[in-house]
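Try this one yourself first.
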C-alpha cells in the first residue's frame, strides 16, 4: 500500500480527491473505486494528509490494534463477560496470530477494529430495541464497507447482520412469535441495511460500476482449483503452525495458512463463552484448560 499511501497523501495535501492512479499498469487505473484504497476512510484521510507514507502506515496500524482491543472489550462486556475475561479476550484479539499476520496490510487493518464495533452496535440496536442505535449501527456498517478490502468488509457486515437476525429471532420467539414484534424486528434490521447502504453509496456505487466495466472473464473451475480454492492440507493449521516459514511459489497457499492460525483457540473461547455458566460450566472450564495447552 506504500505507493497508494504516498500518492493519496500528496493529492490530499493539494486539496484534491485522488480518483485515478496515473502510475499503475502503464496508462493508469481507478484508485477511488478499486474496492481497496479506502480514500474516504476518515483515519486514512487524516493520517495520509498530515504524515509521510511510512509514518501514516505505522500510526494507522497502532491505532487500529488499539481500537480492536477497545471495541472487543466493549462487545464482551456487553455480552456479560467480566472485566478480567473481557480484557483477556480483547488482548487476545489484538495480538492474535491472525491479526498479526494481516495487520500490516492497510486494506485489512481496519477489519480487526470494525468487526467487533459492528457487532456491538447491532447488538445494542436489536436487544435494546433502540431506533437510535439502529441508525448508529447502520453508519458503523457503512464505515466498514468504505474502509478497505470490499470483499472482506462485506463479509464482516454480513456477519453482523446475521448476528442481528439471530438476536431478533430469539427476541420474537420470546414474545410467542407475535406478528407485530416480528415486523418491528425485521424493520430494525431493514433500516440498518438502508442506512448502511446510503452511507456507503458514495464508495460502493462507483466501485460497482468500475468492476462491472473491467471486462474481466470469469475463472474456470480448474483455475480456481489450482490457485484459489483452499487446499485441504491447510486444515492441519487448525491446531499447529509451520515450524519454519512456508516459502512457496503459490502465495495464495500461504494466505490460507495464515487464515487458520489461531482458529482452534478462538472456537474454544466461543464455546467457553457460551457454556461458561450453569450446568455446562465444566465445559467452559475445560476449554480454558485446552486453550492453555495449545498456547
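Now uncover the answer:
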Amino acid at each position: 500500500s506504500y505507493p497508494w499511501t504516498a500518492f493519496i497523501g500528496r493529492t490530499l495535501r493539494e486539496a484534491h480527491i485522488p480518483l485515478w492512479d496515473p502510475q499503475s499498469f502503464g496508462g493508469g487505473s481507478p484508485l477511488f473505486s478499486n474496492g481497496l484504497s479506502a480514500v474516504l476512510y476518515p483515519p486514512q484521510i487524516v493520517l495520509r494528509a498530515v504524515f509521510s507514507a511510512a509514518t501514516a502506515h505505522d500510526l494507522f496500524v497502532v491505532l487500529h490494534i488499539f481500537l480492536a482491543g477497545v471495541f472487543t472489550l466493549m462487545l464482551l462486556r456487553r455480552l456479560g463477560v467480566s472485566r478480567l475475561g473481557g480484557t483477556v479476550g480483547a488482548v487476545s484479539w489484538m495480538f492474535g496470530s491472525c491479526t498479526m499476520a494481516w495487520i500490516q496490510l492497510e486494506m485489512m487493518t481496519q477489519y480487526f477494529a470494525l468487526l467487533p464495533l459492528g457487532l456491538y452496535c447491532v447488538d445494542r440496536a436489536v436487544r435494546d430495541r433502540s431506533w437510535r442505535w439502529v441508525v448508529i449501527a447502520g453508519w458503523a456498517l457503512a464505515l466498514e464497507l468504505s474502509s478497505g478490502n470490499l470483499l472482506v468488509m462485506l463479509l464482516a457486515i454480513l456477519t453482523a447482520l446475521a448476528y442481528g437476525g439471530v438476536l431478533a429471532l430469539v427476541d420474537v420467539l420470546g414474545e410467542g412469535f407475535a406478528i407485530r414484534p416480528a415486523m418491528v424486528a425485521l424493520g430494525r434490521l431493514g433500516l440498518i441495511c438502508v442506512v448502511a447502504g446510503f452511507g456507503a453509496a458514495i464508495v460502493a456505487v462507483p466501485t460497482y460500476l468500475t468492476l462491472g466495466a473491467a471486462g474481466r472473464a470469469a475463472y474456470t473451475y480448474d483455475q480456481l482449483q489450482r490457485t484459489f480454492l483452499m487446499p485441504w492440507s491447510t486444515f492441519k493449521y487448525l491446531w499447529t503452525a509451520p515450524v519454519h516459514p512456508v516459502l512457496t511459489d503459490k502465495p495464495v497457499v500461504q494466505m490460507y495458512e495464515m487464515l487458520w492460525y489461531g482458529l482452534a483457540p478462538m472456537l474454544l473461547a466461543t464455546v467457553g463463552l457460551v457454556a461458561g455458566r450453569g450446568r455446562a460450566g465444566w465445559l467452559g472450564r475445560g476449554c480454558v484448560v485446552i486453550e492453555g495447552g495449545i498456547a
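Discussion: Residues 243-248 have pLDDT under 50 and may be disordered. DSSP finds 14 helices and two strands in the chain.
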